[in-house]
Amino acid sequence: MRDAALIRPARRGFAVLAVLAVLALAGFAAVRSILPPPAIPASAPADEFSAQRAFSEVRTIAAAPHPAGSAANDRVREHLVETLRGLGLSPEVQDTVSTQGGQLSASAGGTGLARVRNVVTLIPGSASTGRIFLVAHYDSAQTGPGGNDDAAGTSTILETARALTSGGKLRNDVVLVLTDAEEACLCGAEAFVRQHPLARDGGVVLNLEARGSSGPAIMFETSTGNASLVGAYAHAPYPVGTSFAVEIYRRLPNDTDFTSFREAGFLGLNSAYIDGAAVYHAPTDTPEAMDRDSLQHHGSNALAVTRELGGRDLSTLRGGGDATYFPVPGLLVRYPGALVWPLAGLALIAVVALGWLARRKGRLTGRNLALAGALGLAPIAVAPVLAQLYWTVLTLIRPEYAALPIDPYRPGLYRIAVIALAVAVVVCWFALLRRKLGAAALAVAGLGWLAALGVVLAAAVPGGAYLATLPALAGALAGIAALYLRDWAATAVITAGGLVAVVILLPTVVMLFPALGMGLGAAGAFLTVLMMLALLPVVDLLHPSAEPVQGLPAARARRRGALPTLVASLAVLACTAAGLVVDRFDAKHPALTQLMYALDADTGTAEWLSAETDTQKWTSQYVAGDPKPVAGTLPAFGAEELRTGPAQAATLPAPNLTLVSDTAAADGRVLTLRLAPQRTVRFVTLHVAAGTQVSAATVGGRPLPVTTSAGGGWGFGFVFHAPPAEGVEVVLTVGGTGPVRLRAMDASDTVTEMPGFHARPSGVGVLGSHSSEMVAVAKTYSF
Ligand SMILES: [Zn+2]
């Protein structure tokens, strides 16, 4: 080969520095552009969103854990009503019973339902063309005060309402929907969507959530056919969203209040900040944990998008397909989904043209290009595998990491380590093959993989195709230009091509890490590999000429070729070591444990239970052995397997199940029952023995599907959250005339009051889960 190097500027050292500086600056600007804006003080003008004003609401709302049905939740609701009245609005409380929204995993133990009390407020428009719904849930999980989840969304809506009512009237109606029982079963949103008159005509929903304590407020979910809506969202002052996130989220089993609205045909956007997820649902999710810049981001965008939608003709929003969109410094790039395939095809053609021209120019041979193409799969496959291994090794060093819900408290250095790991894999691969196959063959092969992946994504995940297609297209066009340019001009176009990859992919890597957590670091590693494949011409610039150069012996040239790999590998080690030092567990950042207690009122025996996948040291004093199904005595757990251990029986009253009436039906009986908790509980459950045919069921006046089955000898059942003290009416139509066995269970969150419980030492905390700290009492009845 005449020249294996791609570009060979006269003063290589200077060129390397200049190119790296430009790319680093572009990367910095791209990442900076998705970070939250600084919080605005309370002295801001009345029609602006001030995070400091909103934060005073956060303090009130998240003073204590306030799950649906709790006295603390009553206080929050009263405060919301009072605050909205203070703005001259007329809030009403929608008090009803609703079944669950979305496909919650809780369905394993039966259908979820709850008594909910939503706070609904209409701000009438001047000439409304439809309704805009601002939605957030005001209840919290039982294990934490919900300082972020979702006092962030609730306080954002209060501050937005304040700003809206102090400015001029909008054209369209705005409805503030502060929902209850989101954490329990998404029942509040479902109740509003299915039962409230203001929801009857549909509209546009902006749902505001938090799954962590910091990071940008990302618009991560849309209704389908989002082109016009995303156009409105682009008017936000700090738009951070990508059509890729929407595609990922649609494939995850997660649900928020938005699910109920979306499934009922509403249009809408769902936004949340998600970094700092170690506090998710935990006692550490306090107001103090909140990054107020994230609150400002939420609010600035929510207010601006509400004003934008508030002035539009909402009837024109529907239609048009899904758009592709992503943030670049200063704007949200948008183009119609119809362009996904043409662009993917164009990128493929451009890469083929580059390969053909490079061969004609003698930069590569067909054989080497084919080999490079085949071997190009290596870094794409190896880096994600190493990223997964990396997390496995970290959890071996720190077993407490295995119990964290999504991320460690301070995962920043580990994330950088995973990025460096992926960089190391690509530069090592490049250094090993560069002399044999030539830099040009490797670079074209790298772009070829990007273009091919763009086609695969266009078919499977169209909203994410731009991640591979655009860097491939830019890289190929730059490569073609570089073939006909010399020296500085060639270096400049190659840098421009790499710039596209950095600006598009680096912010996505930064958003993806908190979205999926360290446990799925493979995703971030994968996108980093894509970025590096597009940057191979720049990587090549870091290497001395592949040809023997006078005065530089071959051995030393090889050593220099290993330098980038060495630097990246050292970065992995340094970041890991520093990460382990920085991210230690202490009282403010406790290791997370999960413990429950269950009393079987039939036998008077009790046991400890834990849902931890790897038993933590603290928990091992209560439970041991392998996880096993517990549905036999606790049908609400469905197929879930738990570790157990013997416990001292506490004196706790079982939920009362009484027969109100028993009438004969066509081929069986209609039983009317009353299920009443005998203590303060968060929910009650009821399950019917598997052998009994249940053909219809109504609970709290709501008909339930009868197809659910709990397992462990139990069939149909339900979980009723926030039950009234007088109990819940249950009407069952059952087959046969023989006695019917039923298992009633209740649950409070009082594990620390049980006999034999020892207070957690400092540095050991509570995992934010829907069953943490639960005390269940179960009893079998027969009628
Ligand atoms: Zn939430």
From TrEMBL:
Residues 118-305 form the Peptidase M28 domain. One of its GO terms (molecular function) is aminopeptidase activity. It is found in: Vacuole membrane. Its main location: membrane. InterPro entries: M28_fam (IPR045175), Peptidase_M28 (IPR007484). The keyword Transport does not apply. It is a multi-pass membrane protein. Keywords: Aminopeptidase, Glycoprotein, Hydrolase, Membrane, Protease, Transmembrane, Transmembrane helix, Vacuole. The chain crosses the membrane at residues 339-357, 369-393, 413-432, 439-459, 465-485, 492-516, 522-542, 563-582. It comes from the Bacteria. Belongs to the peptidase M28 family. May be involved in vacuolar sorting and osmoregulation. This is Vacuolar membrane protease. It comes from Actinoplanes palleronii.
